[in-house]
Amino acid sequence: MRRITRWALWLLPVCASALLGYGSGWRAGEAPGEEEEMACRASLDITSPALQFSGSMKFYAAKGHGVLLINGHYQQPDQLDNQLSRKVIFTYTRYGDMFYTVSRRVDVLFPDNAQESELVTFLPRFFFRSGEAFSMGLFPQGEGYIFTGTTLPLAYCLKGIS
Predict the structure, then answer these.
(1) Helices (H) and strands (E) in the chain — how many of each?
(2) Are 17 and 91 within one domain?
(3) Whole domain around residue 6: which residue ranges?
(4) How many domains does the chain have?
(5) Both 6 and 48 in a single domain?
(6) Residue 140 CB coordination number (10 Å)
(7) Are 63 and 132 in contact (CB under 8 A)?
(8) Do 82 and 15 sit in the same domain of this protein?
(9) Beta-carbon neighbour count of residue 76 at 10 Å?
(10) How confident is the model at residue 31 (pLDDT cuts 50, 70, 90)?
(11) What is the pLDDT of residue 43?
(12) Following CA atoms 93, 98, 103, 104 in sequence, which dihedral angle do they give, to the nearest 10 degrees?
């Protein structure tokens, strides 16, 4: 009897979550296929001991597909500026405010001259290599979203892309 009770106590929250729509791939309270389009833009400033990056990001996602544009420049100590301009086409699965993405194609745009060996010091591989997974959160906040990597807030992403 004790074994059945433990099993039931574990199963009850799982069933309740399923009935309420949590963890179902769409937001709670929305029917499948009614997932909202998400579009936002953010300014990015990343400083590390190896380099400093300043740029912008635009994010668009709807119905399991998305595009992320990242542009900017970075500089390593005692070196010239390097340009970063990438378009990442991705697929995703969404659970609430979390997006589990996989880059399907990464286009290098003019005037990008960034080296992968340098990018790996400040960006996840998702941003410069096809087939890479990346988990991100977009949590509603005011007129936009708090854009997070796995655990840390990265930027405030203002709604709209213009």
Answers:
(1) 2, 8
(2) no
(3) 1-25
(4) 2
(5) no
(6) 11
(7) no
(8) no
(9) 14
(10) very low
(11) 93
(12) 20
> In this structure, are residues 40 and 59 in contact, taking their beta carbons and an 8 Å threshold?
yes
DSSP letter at 127 equals G
Return the exposure string of 106-118: e unless at least 16 CB atoms fall within 10 Å of the residue's CB, then b.
Answer: beeeeeeebeeeb
Would you say residue 60 lies in a domain?
A: yes
Is residue 23 over pLDDT 70?
Answer: no
105: domain CATH number?
2.40.128
* pLDDT single digits (tens) 70-124: 999 999 888 889 999 999 999 999 998 899 999 999 999 999 999 998 888 888 9
| Same domain, yes or no: 86 and 149 | yes
The token duo for 68 is 């992320």
Cβ pair 132, 139 in contact under 8 A: no
Q: CA torsion angle for 155, 145, 66, 33 (degrees, to 10)?
A: 160
pLDDT for 73 equals 95
What is the structure's pLDDT at 12? Answer: 30
Q: Is 147 within 8 Å of 70 (Cβ atoms)? A: no
Instruction: Tell me: do 91 and 128 sit in the same domain.
Output: yes
Give me the chain's average pLDDT, please: 79
Helix (H) or strand (E) holding 118: helix 116-119
- 17 against 117, higher pLDDT: 117
The rounded distance, in Å, linking the Cα atoms of 156 and 42 is 6
